[in-house]
TrEMBL record:
Any one Pfam family match given in the protein's UniProt record, by short name: DAGK_cat
Source superkingdom: Eukaryota
Protein name, entry field: CERKL protein
Species per Swiss-Prot/TrEMBL record: Hemiprocne comata
Biological processes per GO annotation: sphingolipid metabolic process
GO cellular component: membrane
Domain DAGKc: 144-293
Lineage: Eukaryota, Metazoa, Chordata, Craniata, Vertebrata
Any one Gene Ontology molecular-function term assigned to this protein's record: lipid kinase activity
């Protein structure tokens, strides 16, 4: 069956399960050896159950019966089933059939997922093939699980570990789950975007990116841009973009892994892979960043001011090791702390009313003008090690709004206190110079010249001399001279993952500057 035909029948949020009314009806009963004990095994559409076969006690002692604890596997947690064979060295096909191996996704502490194998041993070919067919039919009923994926690997991410992460940790699980992959190892910035523009997405059930936030941002932008091209949209001005046709999977392998941490509650490649394999899908809001004349890109979050200037300085010191240049840029920008003068116009979140009119929103726009140390615009919470609760803890993945966080000009000491609050449980916004808004749209119009002056890095001056202002969009540097208009578009893309509201308190393991 073609991927696009499967997608027409896919439920929007979670892997579809067999009908509940038929779920407990036994499909098969049989005997297998499990953990060196003979067991009665029962398969239904929803569960695989087994219990040890115990000899009858001649004295009628019931204590032995109590030891026969039934064990259960939910079929929704199973992602692969294989015939188990004994083969000689070098033998690739055939071999003596030993039974069936069932592979299950197992939840562990700290939001981690791992895989485990249960071996059902039986030497009967007919018996094993019958069970194997039924197990495969059940697994094929989970419609959101991908069968074919387009994969992008950024070999330059972080410590050049993405290729190793993919081939050592991710690819084996895809192979085990019988997922076909088409892999592109990117060779330059913009490579993934170029490939996606020409890609026939209907051939795949999803797209996967192995890399850091910058890589993921490029792939997400390319995936959504391709959707607009295919829909015949004018890509210079997109008021109402169409949704991405396939989900996006994120395998963390970069310096910053904010999106992965927000989706999974942890930076862990195996966990991310298993969410993809299991077809856990989460709709996510996306922003468009535009000038008056063109679309800049699709993205999830942005910073203007301190967060952007820090990134700009780090990017101009690419010759330094990753952590060193980020620390250097952070300290240098903090030492030369200066505000940006700009005008912010924003449209607060509107709750639809039955008698409301579309044009009424024109009267709802608000403006603030002044000198700002930092402006954050975020459609997702942005969890990371520096902010376990999130850089924007009051927003959600798909609530149709953005958090606008404005830090007014203040002393360096007070600004540092504000930054330190992100790492604690205290409210980082409880300062007189910090204002927060829940918005649908934002326009940022820089006033006068950039806050970067001659005392700062000379290469930074060259950019500012042209009147360009740096923007940090999902960890990617963009420089723009004119007004930037940011709009949120509800649930524009499906990402493989879960809503972190449903996860346990996450232990942050990634870095975010």
């Amino acid at each position: 069956e073609a991927p696009e035909e499967r997608r027409r029948r896919v439920a929007p949020l979670a892997a579809a399960a067999p009908p509940a009314e038929a779920g407990e009806k036994p499909l098969l009963k049989g005997i297998f050896e499990i953990s060196k004990r003979s067991c009665d095994v029962v398969l239904s559409a929803r569960r695989l159950r087994w219990s040890p076969i115990l000899p009858e006690s001649p004295t009628g002692d019931s204590s032995m019966v109590s030891q026969a604890q039934e064990e259960i596997i939910e079929m929704k947690d199973v992602f692969s089933v294989k015939l188990k064979r004994r083969r000689f060295v070098g033998q690739k096909k055939g071999g003596t059939l030993l039974g069936i191996t069932v592979f299950k996704c197992l939840s562990k502490e700290e939001n981690k997922l791992t895989d485990c194998a249960i071996h059902l041993n039986n030497l009967s070919e007919d018996h094993c093939h019958l069970w194997f067919r039924h197990l495969k039919e059940i697994l094929n009923g989970f419609q959101n699980r991908p069968k074919s994926l387009k994969v992008f690997v950024n070999p330059s991410s972080h410590k050049r570990e993405a290729t190793h992460v993919y081939y050592e940790q991710v690819a084996p699980l895809f192979k085990l789950a019988d997922i076909k992959t088409d892999v592109t190892v990117t060779e330059y910035e913009g490579h993934a975007l170029s490939v996606l523009k020409e890609c026939e997405l209907q051939a795949f059930d999803g797209v996967v990116c192995v890399g850091g936030d910058g890589s993921v941002s490029e792939v997400a932008h390319g995936l959504l841009l391709k959707a607009q091209i295919d829909a015949g949209k004018d890509t210079d001005y997109i008021r109402s973009p169409v949704r991405a046709p396939v989900p996006l999977g994120v395998i963390p392998a970069g310096t910053s892994n904010i999106l992965a941490h927000t989706l999974y509650g942890i930076k862990h490649a195996v966990t991310a892979t298993l969410h993809i394999v299991m077809g856990h899908i989460q709709p996510v809001d996306v922003c468009t960043f535009s000038t008056p004349s063109k679309l800049l890109r699709f993205g999830f979050s942005a910073m203007f001011g301190f967060g952007a200037r820090t990134l700009a300085l780090a990017e101009r010191h690419r010759w330094m090791p990753s952590n060193q240049r980020k620390d250097f840029a952070f300290i240098k920008t903090l030492a030369d702390l200066k505000p940006e003068e700009c005008e912010l116009s924003f449209l607060p979140l509107q709750i639809p009313q039955e008698d409301s009119h579309e044009n009424d929103s024109k009267d709802q726009w608000q403006k603030i003008q002044g000198h700002f140390l930092n402006v954050s615009i975020m459609a997702i919470p942005c969890l990371c090690s520096m902010a376990p609760r999130g850089l924007a803890p009051n927003t959600r993945l798909n609530n149709g709004s953005m958090a606008l966080i404005v830090v007014q000009n203040t002393s360096r000491t007070e600004f540092i206190k504000h930054l330190k609050r992100y790492a604690s449980i205290k409210n980082q916004f409880n300062f007189p110079f910090v204002e927060t808004y829940t918005v649908q749209e934002v326009k940022v119009q820089p006033q006068g010249k950039s806050g970067i002056d001659d005392k700062e890095n000379t290469s930074l001056n060259a950019a500012s001399a042209e009147g360009n202002y740096p923007w940090n969009i999902d960890g990617d540097l963009m420089e723009e001279a004119s007004e930037v208009h940011v709009r949120v578009h509800p649930q524009l893309i499906n990402l493989y993952g879960v809503n972190t509201d449903d996860l346990e308190s996450s232990q942050a393991t990634c870095s975010c500057i």
